[in-house]
Each structure stands twice: as structure tokens, then as C-alpha cells.
Specification:
It comes from Schizosaccharomyces pombe (strain 972 / ATCC 24843) (Fission yeast). The chain crosses the membrane at residues 67-87, 119-139, 140-160. It is a multi-pass membrane protein. By secondary structure, this protein is mostly helical. It has one domain. The protein contains eight helices and two strands. The chain has helices spanning 2-27, 32-35, 47-60, 62-79, 81-99, 114-131, 134-155, 160-170, and strands spanning 105-107, 110-112. Strands 1-2 form a two-stranded antiparallel sheet. β1 (105-107) and β2 (110-112) form a beta hairpin. α4 (62-79) runs antiparallel to α7 and α5 packs antiparallel against α6.
Length: 171
């Protein structure tokens, strides 16, 4: 009975940690109105101003930027359905092989070992994966993420209150 109570306690602690981290992550989200305020968009005067804006906006809008990157990942997978199918086959294949729990697969008169199943899965996934062009998708994803995130961070002015915060810290 004590082992059961220990495992329940451990599970509840894990869920509370996940909930706390999720709450902390969600508390970092800024409203859409604040994130997309077009009145605060302007071209930086020089590179150092752009650098300071990027630094400030990364710390302020990090949760929003992660959400944008997640949406771009979802869009990239929807845009490349073959890659999504290859990922599904890979995950399903590994799940099926692990479900055997190390036992060999018995097909009528043929026995296939666990290692051979992984080799067969790799032989199927590598050509399909190359045909699905994952490198192109990754390069597009990196480029689109950089343009969206760095573009917003560089052109979005920090609020006026942030200037007073730095003065207060100096005093």
C-alpha cells in the first residue's frame, strides 16, 4: 500500500510541476493588442538601437515568439504532408517494435529479430525521408522564424515605461 501511495504522490508532484511550468509559460504571454500594436512599429535609427530593441523584446515577448514558431512548425508540416506521413510511420514503427518488448516477431514460418525490425524500418524511412525533403522544410522554418521574430523584435519599440525602469535601476 505504501508503494502505491508513493507512486500517487510522485505522479501528483509531477503534474503539479507541469502545471506550474505551464502557468509560468502562459503568464509570459502578452495580449494580441499589445503584441501587434502598429503604433509602436518604427525603423530603428542605427544598429545599436535595433540590438537593444531585440534584446528587450526577446525578454518581453518570448512566449509569444515561441507560439509563433510553434504555429510555423505546424504550418510547415501541413504544407509538407509527405514529411508528416514519414514522421507518423517512424513514430508508429518504433512504437510497434517497442510494443514487442524485445521479443522477436513471428510471421508464420519466419522469425524477425528486434534489430532486424529497426533495420527494416530505417531502410523504409531513409528513402521516404529524403524524398519528403526535410532539409528544405527545416531551412524554410529557420528562415521564416528568423524573419518573423527578429523582424518584430527589431521594429517594435519598447514602451516608454521601459526607459524609466533603466533610470530607476541606475539611481
Amino acid at each position: 500500500m505504501s508503494a502505491l501511495s508513493l507512486s500517487i504522490t510522485k505522479v501528483s508532484e509531477t503534474f503539479s510541476e507541469i502545471y506550474a511550468s505551464r502557468a509560468q509559460y502562459l503568464s509570459g504571454f502578452k495580449s494580441v493588442g499589445e503584441f501587434l500594436d502598429v503604433r509602436r512599429i518604427s525603423r530603428p535609427r542605427n544598429f545599436s538601437e535595433a540590438q537593444s530593441r531585440i534584446s528587450f523584446n526577446f525578454s518581453r515577448f518570448s512566449s509569444n515568439y515561441l507560439a509563433i514558431i510553434a504555429m510555423l512548425v505546424i504550418y510547415a508540416l501541413i504544407r509538407n504532408p509527405l514529411l508528416l506521413i514519414v514522421i507518423g510511420i517512424g513514430v508508429g514503427g518504433v512504437y510497434g517494435i517497442r510494443k514487442l518488448q524485445g521479443a522477436d516477431l513471428q510471421l508464420s514460418h519466419r522469425v524477425i529479430s528486434n534489430q532486424n525490425l529497426y533495420v527494416i524500418l530505417a531502410c523504409v524511412l531513409i528513402p521516404l525521408g529524403l524524398f519528403a525533403s526535410p532539409i528544405e522544410t527545416i531551412i524554410w522554418l529557420v528562415g521564416a522564424s528568423c524573419v518573423c521574430v527578429f523582424g518584430h523584435a527589431a521594429f517594435f519599440e519598447p514602451p516608454v515605461e521601459s526607459a524609466f525602469e533603466t533610470v530607476e535601476q541606475q539611481v
